[in-house]
Amino acid sequence: AGLAFAIWAIAAAVRNPPQPVHQDSVVQQGAADTTSRSGTAGTQIDTTVKIGNGAPTGPDSTRKTVNLPPQQEPKVDITYNPSVGEPPKSGMINISKIERGAESLKVFFLLKKSSGDDDKSTFSIYGPENPSNCFFVVVNGYPYHLVSIHPNGKNLQFGSSSSFPFTATFEKIPEDARVIDIIEGTDRDRMEQNYWTFREVHLN
């Protein structure tokens, strides 16, 4: 009986040889096709699980949609050409725009060449490394310091241009602030002097 079973097993193996395993038949754990779609309602991610390199099959191949919360853009309040109660006496510099964001206040200045200036006339714009000379903002008597200003330096020139724009970034001010002062230098806050100081700047 034992000899007969062995002969039967050998014959069965010859008739049904083991099938080779192909790479395409192996389930790739975590492999998926992912497509994202963004809109006002948020972001949708469609995920389809594949087996090997072929078409999606099996119960895990069902396309699933995952709804993610919408991504909100940081809020920025912009004031163009703000009203200024007391602008600098020279009148050759103004504020073209103020951006109040969640983390900072940005002031966009425009310095204009006067009739007495030539291409080689120089001026200085001080950065936060010169706290006695650089700009700062005052809200209800409290100072908010300069974070950065660009461009800056000494002996800057207009060149052939009739104006010179530069941008100052300050610390965040209170959300309910509507009137601010922008003062040039802690040792220059004198009403009788012609510094680049803007008092009573109105924000939206």
Main attributes of the structure:
204 residues, mainly beta, three-stranded antiparallel β-sheet, globular
Model description:
The chain is 7% helix and 43% strand. It is mostly beta strands and 204 residues long. A nine-stranded antiparallel β-sheet has the order 4-6-7-12-10-9-13-14-5, with no helix packed on it. A three-stranded antiparallel β-sheet has the order 1-2-3, with no helix packed on it. The protein is globular, with a radius of gyration of 35 Å. The chain starts with a helix and ends with a strand. The model is unreliable at 22-36 (pLDDT under 50).
Short description:
By secondary structure, the chain is mainly beta.
Question: Topology of this protein?
Answer:
Blueprint: H1 2-15, E1 32-39, E2 42-49, E3 64-68, E4 77-80, E5 84-86, E6 93-100, E7 104-112, E8 122-125, E9 135-139, E10 142-150, E11 153-157, E12 163-171, E13 179-184, E14 198-202
Overall strand count: 14
Structural Rg: 35 Å
Q: How much helicity do the residues have?
A: under 10%
Beta-strand level of the residues, as a percent range? 35-45%
Strand order of the largest sheet: 4-6-7-12-10-9-13-14-5
The poorly predicted ranges are 22-36
Average pLDDT across residues? 79
- Cα shape: globular
Number of helices: 1
Helix/strand class? mainly beta
| Biggest β-sheet strands, sense, barrel | 9 strands, antiparallel
Which H/E pattern describes the elements? HEEEEEEEEEEEEEE
Straight-line distance between termini:
101 Å
